[in-house]
Write a structure and sequence with these properties.
Spore Coat Polysaccharide Biosynthesis Protein SpsA, Chain A; binds 1-O-phosphono-alpha-D-glucopyranose
Length: 298
């Protein structure tokens, strides 16, 4: 029987040190791209793909994240009294039904694989999605929805993939390509953060995964990999090597922003703002002025 993907894990336990001092008191996932927190983009993408259960793997200091998803009756009442229906509608879109969202604590920062493993009891024996909210993907059809369509055909592990320059390979999980079929690529496994010159291809894993429960079993082994951490990439490769499961890369259609970096966060902010009717004209005018001023100075 064909299995449906209805659960997604959002690993959000990281300390976000690249964004200090802001992340001293604000979880990175709450930082805003235009006027929506980073994590809202991930939730919207998952919902568009048909996800019904949202599992957050959090850590100490992330309570603002839980508050964000909580109902805000006082705020709603004030807005209602003032007749601010547009703002009420915006708030409504962030509502999460009771029971739709769950939080697991990752007690120790032992790696992405370990974070996913923390949610194993809530996943049980179903295929599931993993979304890394740092990777924000702007697309006509949500990246996860594209991947779920592909999963409906393959019923196998699928990771989002994108070409990266050779010099960047060491920052990613890199696919060991078996056969390149265009949007889908079959693999012989993956290597997490290969040493310079050792990347098996230029196709990098981007933070969207659809995985089988076998990967959770592999994570039970708690093997450490790159950086001394328990890597999700290794568990997926093991599901292939030890259990003969297929692992595919999926070249998604859309633009990915690395919001784990300051430059990526800024690029995403500008790009999303330029998509907005209420901001586009002013922002373009500002960018044009900057470009002219730069040209004049040269
Ligand atoms: C994680 C994964 C890596 C993947 C990357 C995508 O790495 O471990 O395989 O390529 O996300 O953003 P991180 O960026 O957490 O070091």
């Amino acid at each position: 029987m064909r299995k449906k993907v209805t659960k997604a894990i959002f690993p959000v336990a990281g300390m976000g040190t690249r964004f200090l001092p802001a992340t001293k008191s604000v979880p990175k996932e709450i930082m805003t791209l235009v006027d929506r927190p980073l994590v809202q983009y991930a939730i919207d993408e998952a919902r568009e793909a048909g996800i019904k259960e949202f599992i957050f793997v959090t850590s100490r200091g992330k309570s603002a994240l839980e508050d964000y998803f909580d109902a805000a009756p006082q705020l709603e009442q004030t807005l209602r009294k003032k007749g601010k229906t547009e703002l009420l509608d915006i708030l409504k879109k962030t509502d999460m039904d009771s029971g739709e969202i769950a939080y697991m604590r990752q007690a120790k920062p032992l790696g992405l694989g370990h974070a996913v493993w923390c949610a194993r009891r809530l996943i049980a024996n179903e295929p599931f999605a993993v979304i890394l909210p740092d990777d924000v993907i702007s697309a006509d059809k949500s990246c996860l929805a594209q991947m779920i369509e592909a999963f409906e055909e393959t019923q196998s592990n699928i990771v989002a993939a994108m070409e990266v320059p050779e010099s960047m390979a060491e920052a990613y999980g890199i696919l060991d390509v078996k056969e390149d079929m265009g949007s889908i690529v079959s693999t012989k496994g993956m290597v997490e953060k290969p040493a310079p010159g050792e990347a098996p291809s230029n196709l990098a894993v981007i933070g969207r995964y659809i995985l089988t429960p076998t990967v959770l079993q592999k994570l039970n082994q708690k093997k450490t990999g790159a950086g001394g951490e328990i890597q999700l990439t290794d568990a997926i490769s093991d599901a292939r090597e030890e259990d003969g499961e297929e692992v595919y890369g999926y070249r998604f259609k859309g633009q990915r922003f690395d919001c784990g970096s300051k430059a990526g966060f800024l690029q995403a902010t500008v790009s999303f703002a330029l998509q907005r009717d209420d901001l586009r004209d002013d922002l373009w005018a500002f960018i044009n002025d900057l470009v002219h001023a730069k040209e004049a100075a040269q």
